[in-house]
Amino acid sequence: MRLRLWAGTALVALLAGCATIPGSGPVNVGITSAPEEGSFLPLAEGPKDGADPQAIIQGFIAALPSGFDTDFSVAREYLTPEASRGWNPEASVMVFGSGSLIPTVDQTGTSAVLPVPVTATIDADGRLVEAPDGAETTLDFSLTQGADGQWRISELADGSLLAETFFESLFRRVGLVFATTDGSTQVAETRWFPETNAATRAASELVVGPSPWLADAVSTGFTAAASLEVDSVVVTDGVAAVRLASDAASSASEVELGLAQLQATLTALPDVTSVDVTIGGVPVEAGSASILASAQVPSELAAAIVGSRLGLWDGTSLRVTPDSAGALPASATGLAQSYSGSQTALIVDGTQLVVTSALSVGMSGLVPSDSTSADPSTPMELQTIATGASLVAPSYDVDGWLWTADAGGGALSAYPVDGISGEAVQLEAEWLQARRIQALAVSRDGARVLVASTVAGQPVMEVAGIVRDASGTPVALTEPLQVGVSAGASTAVTWIDSSTVAALGSRVDGGATPLWIATVGGLTEASTAASDATALTARSGTTSLTVLSAEAGALARSGTGWTPVVAGVTDLAYAG
């Protein structure tokens, strides 16, 4: 099991002492916050006189964490001058798991190999790639003994090593904010930057643009040639000064959008309250930078299946459709609710995607759940939207499109159903052709879709960008980004917020039902749900994560456990 961020014991045996990171002063160059009180880093020490090759490599590794704050000056003392000049520690960062790293040195002392249990790697642009459980790599070192008898590392790969125990203190998760293709809503891409220059790195990477997998699904106010005029963002009394080159934007609308992106990205950092921007030395006014809205949060009203009826739950009361609304088919599953609240979708017999407006009356048009006994005598009026051999549970996007897929069809389908017009679309993609789709969910911003599937029997979870035309119609899917690398086969998925997803697995051999919470562009937390959980939903944040148990009804996450919140429901769905 891998927790998202946990305190490991790696490097402990290598440390001669510890020191706290000093707090930041009133004027910081790219420093956005001081690490939390109580966070400790190893005291960086240079090589000891007469240290053998193994001690040199271990000392080098022990000095690396402090390097993110000191340009790796102490770590470079373990290298020959030539190796120090050629080594680029910022090319990548390999985050490794628990346990001391012990190099194996050959008899001559000039060559060593270092096995490393890999948790994740972070590239030079801050993109984190999670490694599967049990992943390991081997690093090679060459050493030389100088005329003074001292051993030093003469050859090594670019990049740095960092234990998970220091990762949380030294790196900050930053959401680079882009916009939906209509320029209305924030879409954040997760990157990871060292604390000491997070503001500078975030601004620099933001103007470069989104990663390739997301680029066609979002828009940005910065031109392809955009860059920082001054390669540092100075934070003074909460104001981040961003100096852009003159070619950063080519129109007034781009300037407006770019400023909104900078403000949304940088003010999310702890020590930044506002942004001061110049383009080619000319100040940019911040008056209209509120053009980017946050992604819509689902309503507090969750749709429910209660016996043969539909219902609404407001967190306190459960009300259901009256007899006059009719009864649901016994095989109805895969509940989904539109953001407008005017429509509810289900899968019937695994082959029909249907919708109903029975819940559009709201709580006032429903009856208390404890006031009904017998099932309605007539069937509920349902509109069939699509049929297929084996349809997965549907998902609404914020624009009113209803998404599903045939499990073995190699494509996703989107239907304009909730107050919008247009033709149904089939979004085929080469990466989907070999997949057997298990579940899907569209993000709250409408720019991405989460797909859980299997490939040659192996589970995989991916997020792809949704490419839309000027009218908002989905027209294509981008190449996907794999998420939840350590997750197993999933039967249901949901978005928890704009960058976090959850997936429910299948109960194995009478044990607990596995649950995974994954950051898109981050790490995965493994947990468990109720043993008979069959579905899940979330409104906003991990505390709103709710699973459905045939025996206990709906249970909400409470710490590491689950608390019953409403009985008698077999399915529950917030909008989305």
TrEMBL record:
Question: Membrane-crossing residues?
Answer: none
Alphabetized InterPro entries for the sequence: GerMN, LpqB_C, LpqB_N
Highest taxon of the lineage: Bacteria
Q: Name one Pfam family in it.
A: Germane
The residue ranges of the GerMN domain are 199-288
Q: What is this protein called?
A: LpqB family beta-propeller domain-containing protein
What's the source species for this entry? Demequina capsici
